[in-house]
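[job 4471] stage=fold_predict status=RUNNING
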Amino acid sequence: MSLQRLEAALEFQEHYEERVAEAADFLRTKLGGRERERERKPEFGIVLGSGLGDLADSIRDAIVIPYEQIPHFPRTTVPGHEGKLLIGELEGVPVIGLKGRKHYYEVADEPFNTGILQAVFAVHVLADMGVKNYFATNAVGGLNASYNVGDIMIIRSHINLLPNPLLGRHHDFRRVNDNERGYRYQPMNGAYDVELRKMLREAGSSYEGHVHEGVYLALTGPTYETEAECVGFRDGLKADTVGMSVANEVIVAR
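[job 4471] inference complete, writing structure tokens
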């Protein structure tokens, strides 16, 4: 590995908090600055995974910003992840929509733990902006034999086999709810909000049999699983679905 690449990774690590703040400040200018931001501050950050990018068309009066225009924002390289941020309203609720995400497998060869930090960079930016709710979506593989292609699963809990994004230096990020420093030892019980899950179940009540609630297993990918792995994850770990993202983002969001 070249010395230049190592130096770039070290700089990314040392200035990570500053880079998050610069990206957040840039987006605040799109909201009219800190004073205007209070009036238009998004309530939800919604990341749209594979196959779900069309939902962005439902965000009204949207300010559309390509990721490459946002300072330090990781660019997407996977088909189906367009790489655009939208600020607008969804059903009358102010939101930030992330049309595409950075997956850990795209940057797993980066030195140190800079790869996993790139994968959660957007979540840190939303938190810096004071966004209180993080709504993660993705396309998954079904392990539960009662699920069918095209069904929806509300995540009740996850099993994370991705690198934990809180490894390494304890950053000085502030919690959205009380402005205190984020926990070093973050409890993960209750990470998937009970009330929001209830609302999702009610919203999908007319699609009985196609909306489920279960456990999501996060793996690095980018390979899909063998038959033996699927059986082991389903019968041994009791996972209902398997994917390559979400859990690392939820750890940071929590």
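[job 4471] summary: The beta strands are 44-48, 60-66, 84-90, 93-99, 133-136, 141-142, 152-160, 211-218, 241-243.
[job 4471] exit 0
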